[in-house]
Amino acid sequence: MQILEPKPKKQKKPGEYTKILGYLVRVGTKRHSILLETKAHLEDLLKAEKGQSNWVVCDGTEFGPPIN
Predict the structure, then answer these.
(1) Which of 1, 20, 26, 33 is the most exposed place for a label (fewest CB within 10 A)?
(2) Which residues contact 49 (CB under 8 A, 6 or more apart)?
């Protein structure tokens, strides 16, 4: 009988951009990505993290300045 090892999940590098619901979210100093299920979840997160420089949200086309 063969025992299958689970495949390791691809780790994202700090600062790597992830496209989520048409938004690009960069986690600056954190070493993991945060999965956002809904746009409302994203908005709640941005409210909670407002004023902290480690979150940058850009539009889907460019890595531009933060959206306020």
Answers:
(1) 1
(2) 55
